[in-house]
Amino acid sequence: MGNLKILMWLGLVSAALACELNPGPGVGSKSPGDNHYRLIVNGEVERYAPDQRYVVTLVGSRTHDVVQQFAGFKIILDPLNPDTRRAPSKQGQFQLFADTLTKFDEECTNSVVEADDLPKTEVQVMWKAPPAGSGCVLLKAMVYENASRWFAEDGQLTKRICEDTSLSIPDCCACDDAKYRMVFEGLWSPQTHPKNFPTQALWLTHFSDVIGATHPKNFTFWGEGQLASDGFRSLAEWGSVGLMERELRQHGGLLRSIVKAQGLWHPRVNSNTSAAFTVDKKRHYLSLASMFGPSPDWVVGVSGLDLCQKDCSWVESKIIDLYPYDAGTDNGVSYMSPNSETVPRERMYRITPMFPEDPRAPFYDPDSKTMAPMARLYLTREKLISKSCDEETLLALVAEEEENTQTVDKPEVDVCRLSASPNIGSSIGRSVQSEIENDLPIDLQSASQ
């Protein structure tokens, strides 16, 4: 029994040493300060929403003359109270992007390190925040330039981020739930957007399947200034919703409805598709997106549309024009641009007649301040579902999936034709296939047409 206690104690000491922020043996003493390196959470977030995902970026100074580079790094999650144990249930957990820059540190819980010793200017990891009631968390980093220059914990290499407790206060006073019908209408055509319209690949023009959810205020999966997850990248570049849907389902009871509608393929690009969804007083925001292609990584949709009104009623109907957004995952500037991954990913932005300022861009038109919408969204409230304001509903534990049942013919793609045509390139091939995966357990509610 005594030997077992000694082994357990040695194991705890070993784990504690493995989590120390240093490059390991054979290096000089830590350099003071942060040398302008810093940790950034989703831009400059100071408070986290429980169970929400955030992008953590470790980056150095960037000027016209100097871009700082480093060979190694380590990012860890620590409790604010040193007596509290380190655990994903207390400080959340890291998740890796699909790149080759990062890997988990096998010797330290909640720790990410470099995957190689090549020079880096920036690294990113995803952090899933801990559940409600977890309090404050410390994100700490070590940056290794060489054996005599490394920095850790000082200055902006430690970031304290605390739970946003205000999010638990309902911001909607409606008692009843509301069921809506969403109709997505495609408007994009050679007549509405004639510049460089991909007429040579007309058979591939389409809007992908629509994917989205109804959710609380503190949830988001796409929008202006955000960084795309792997699932959103898959949607924006390939028109594939499977991974994005799985990412949404991981949030479970945080969502009220998962919204899905089939895509619109040539020659039905200018027709419509629909789905139903439900909102309640806690989850009254709608976000959804659809890729249009062929394109590098362009989407249309809405993000965080509030359907609850200040007078405690639900919006009866709404019509929203949809404009293009760049997902920040591909460098292409035209419909037919070949694949060119953006590393690291950039923040999503609205495409306008003035930006990006590139004559090759199909929407660039310095003589115009307006743009015709790519698509249009029609929202209609179908019914109210009577609920008591103090009633606890079991639906809070389950996300519904509500999708349309109409059949949309999608073209069969001639792979040989793609590979034999040098003008089409891989950017079209990636926008050809749209997948629907229903492999996760979820309550199904099919919306009748």
Task: Supply database-style keywords.
disulfide bond, Spondin-1, Spondin_N, repeat, 11% helix, disordered C terminus, seven-stranded mixed beta sheet, 2 domains, mainly beta, ten-stranded mixed beta sheet, Immunoglobulin-like
Low-confidence stretches: 4-17, 391-398, 403-449
Straight-line distance between termini: 69 Å
Q: What would you call the quaternary organization? A: single chain
Give the fraction of residues assigned to helices.
10-25%
C-alpha-based Rg, rounded: 24 Å
Strand coverage percent: 25-35%
Q: Helix count, per DSSP?
A: 6
Structural class: mainly beta
CATH architecture of the largest domain: Sandwich
Number of domains: 2
Can you identify the CATH class of the largest domain?
Mainly Beta
Indicate the CATH topology of the largest domain.
Immunoglobulin-like
